[in-house]
Amino acid sequence: MRSQYEPHRAATTDEPVRDRDRDGARARVLVVDDDPTVAEVVAGYLDRSGYAVDRADDGPTALGRARDRWPDLVVLDLMLPGMDGLEVCRRLREQGPVPVIMLTARGDEEDRVLGLEVGADDYVTKPFSPRELVLRVESVLRRSRPAAGGGHRLAAAGLSVDPDARRATKNGGELALTLREFDLLAFFLRHPGRAFGREDLMREVWGWDFGDLSTVTVHVRRLRGKVEDDPARPRLIQTVWGVGYRFEPGGAVD
Question: Could you state one GO biological process linked to this protein (predicted)?
Answer without folding.
Answer: regulation of DNA-templated transcription
